[in-house]
Amino acid sequence: MTDPAEATAPLPAPRVDGERLVARLTELRGIGAAADGGVTREAYGSADVAGRDLVAGWMAEAGLAVEVDGAANLIGRRAGTTGRWLASGSHLDTVVDGGWLDGAYGVVAAVEVAAALAGRPDARHGLAVVAYANEEGARGTQGMAGSRALVGQVDEEELATPDDDGVTLRDRIAAAGAEVARHDDAAWDLAAFDAVVELHIEQGPVLDATGTTLGAVTAITGRQALDVEVLGAANHAGATPMELRHDALAAAAEVVLAIEALPATGAVRVATVGHVTVGPNVRNVVPGRVALSAELRDEDAGRLDAAMALVEAELAPIAEKRGVALRTSWGQRVQPTACDPAVLAVVRRVCAESGRTWTELPSGAGHDAQILGREIPMAMVFVPSRGGLSHTPHEDTAPDDLVAGAQALLDAIVALDDVDQPDPTTEDRP
Amino acid sequence: MTDPAEATAPLPAPRVDGERLVARLTELRGIGAAADGGVTREAYGSADVAGRDLVAGWMAEAGLAVEVDGAANLIGRRAGTTGRWLASGSHLDTVVDGGWLDGAYGVVAAVEVAAALAGRPDARHGLAVVAYANEEGARGTQGMAGSRALVGQVDEEELATPDDDGVTLRDRIAAAGAEVARHDDAAWDLAAFDAVVELHIEQGPVLDATGTTLGAVTAITGRQALDVEVLGAANHAGATPMELRHDALAAAAEVVLAIEALPATGAVRVATVGHVTVGPNVRNVVPGRVALSAELRDEDAGRLDAAMALVEAELAPIAEKRGVALRTSWGQRVQPTACDPAVLAVVRRVCAESGRTWTELPSGAGHDAQILGREIPMAMVFVPSRGGLSHTPHEDTAPDDLVAGAQALLDAIVALDDVDQPDPTTEDRP
């Protein structure tokens, strides 16, 4: 019954189903949706689980064997002929009142890649499509908990740590329906993976501002958290002469401006003070205490180290001049991760041959890919974020760009399947 | 049974009972007390009412006729021989986690004055000892609600306005046990009063820093409230390049420093930003919105006006440079009130003859006396605040200073009783 001609003719290049991609993202947007267009699917919560269940069905429909591992990662697999693996995915959880594309896009697109390759001759590599658990760090947790479990970086202590609501990570994972007793079995045989590629919206303004459709990511930024406590003296705002004040807020204002000014010196790519609490925080009392939460980001770990020293040097004279105490506390460091030269070369070639505008850029946001990228050759593909907006209900990307990104991911997976060791010497330039 | 010699011999100068004064203040401190030494008696609440009940008993013990008026002011009266009146008092309510002396000292000392004068020949002036209701502005209310009612400045609209907890001022007054239906009857026949004198801790560092026991207050500061809303653009702290940011917090930091710098130009005595809220206020998001609550204080209304124009001029370039919106909203103005020259002259003479160190100074804090002082000749006496601290659990004054202040108040009331029109030409100087 088989037509011999059909069996030997080259198959047309696989294409993603763009309409279905956008329709599925829209359907997923309805889970945890708010009236303002925002989406809230906090990791391990009921909306997150409902989103995972929806996507699990699409994975099965694409012919993948579906599993929820002991870390609550949702994984769909199809084996290849060589025992080697490729992986692609992102996350389904969101920040509170976040957007519809952050994470979800990379997962649904990877499912479309699997669907586009279903029914074709066996691939050399197996394909693992992953929705990593708790990328965002719900309820004050560390974040990227699922991808870190895949590389064995979530320990017993972290599993036993309560979140902002007093619930341990272990109990959260169990409540999400995962077999947390098998948490440590979630770790992958990393040596069996030849590449991991994550597709994501940029979450920044570069592609949108330049009218560029595709971004080949060169590196994922590192991030150094910083807390600054400013201790002055609370006092009556009417009765305390200016020269006798130790105003913690005025000192904190100088700290905010000193941190903001760091990137202009070339010391670090971006620096942000995002969180402020003031005590006692009433109009008619000179503030006695301010707590600032800040972060520095750069693609170079050495520059982050140097910037930390610069911050200390900038803050000391502020404390001295104002007679306040400035206590710095250097928090979590997420090390920067360079993309793999060979896998990046494949992404560059795919972008160059896509017929779309493209460029290279670093990722200023953190991604699960940077966790896996320390163990597996890694690259990322970006599409524009309208207005550079992300983590807000206004987060959006043109449907045509969403389809173009998914197709680039498909093309990259196909190209990566052809070789055991991609060639890093490809000279494609944006 | 009367000894004729005793009836004609001059009475010794009246003295306050210093031990009882300090003991009563200590007893009052126990109502609304926290473990850290702080006191919370929010106006109209149960602790405030309990404090009022305690003091009402002391008033009766001093031979005063006690009333709670329709505005929840506690008033103890003893009539004189001429139909003219003197008044003294302060308030019993506190800020949240405030100190034991702010307000309470002036009330308890005035009760001691009345007690020291009990049993002596009839005074020419009647004496009204007052605990004004809600000086502090509990739960977001305007404050000085009791003293403003005495001069007819609390209208139906204010009575119907809900506080931060959604309860109207009318219902608060009723809940405190006052006949709020008779609120408007609380207004005094102001023309019958020849003087009002308020004794208070300084709430600032001047007397304490200079080792001075008594302060003759020259004027009570004016106060202009200011709200500044800073509208920038919230965005991803990792993915948004510095040059594309509209960081509302960094702009707000410049506003804080601009407002703080005003007094150094001589434009205004003090300027304070006391309250800050940041949105969304998370470490990894560039702040999109900041609200600042600030105030300017000066003893000259014209300088307050000029300083307002200066603030607008300082803020405009910050908005321009940073591409943010800066919206100023000028709130409540409490006009400065000069002390009455003649009553101040009496206070100066009392201070000069007290054998204590003394000085003249303006009041940087607002007081009920400034409300009454627009209608009745007014003066104030200050004693030191240790370390200049007030509105905190650490608020304190040496017992000896507390007694010296109460005695000065007593001496001033005695001196004021002697004359219908005090002589402002007294030349006592500190």
Q: Roughly what fraction of the amino acids of chain A lie in strands? A: 15-25%
Total helices of chain A: the number is: 13
Order of helices and strands of chain A: HHHEEEHEHHHEHEEEHEEEHEEHEHEH
Percent in helix of chain A:
25-40%
Outline of this structure?
Two copies of one chain form a homodimer. With 430 residues, chain A is α/β, with parallel strands linked by helices.
Provide a descriptive summary of the structure in words.
The structure is a homodimer of 430-residue chains. With 430 residues, chain A is of the alpha/beta class. The first copy, chain A, has two domains: 8-221 and 336-417, Aminopeptidase (3-Layer(aba) Sandwich), CATH 3.40.630.10; 222-334, Alpha-Beta Plaits. Helices cover 33% and strands 23% of the residues of chain A. In chain A, strands 1, 2, 3, 4, 5, 6, 13, 14 and 15 form a nine-stranded mixed beta sheet that branches. The first copy, chain A, has a four-stranded antiparallel beta sheet with strand order 9-11-7-12, with helices on one face. In chain A, strands 8-10 form a two-stranded antiparallel sheet. Chains A and B meet through strand 8, helix 9, strand 9, strand 10 and strand 11 of A and strand 8, helix 9, strand 9, strand 10 and strand 11 of B.
Task: Describe the structure using short key phrases.
homodimer; 430 residues; alpha/beta; Aminopeptidase; Alpha-Beta Plaits; 2 domains; 4-stranded antiparallel sheet; 13 helices
Any chance you could write out the topology, listing elements then pairs?
The structure is a homodimer of 430-residue chains.
Chain A: H1 4-8, H2 18-29, H3 46-61, E1 65-68, E2 74-78, E3 85-91, H4 104-117, E4 126-132, H5 145-150, H6 156-159, H7 169-175, E5 193-201, H8 206-210, E6 214-220, E7 222-231, E8 235-236, H9 248-261, E9 270-279, E10 285-286, E11 289-298, H10 301-322, E12 325-334, E13 337-338, H11 341-352, E14 358-363, H12 368-372, E15 378-383, H13 399-417
Parallel strand pairs in A: 3-4, 3-5, 5-15, 6-14
Antiparallel strand pairs in A: 1-2, 2-4, 6-13, 6-15, 7-11, 7-12, 8-10, 9-11
Helix pairs in contact in A: 2-4, 2-13, 3-4, 4-13, 9-10, 11-13
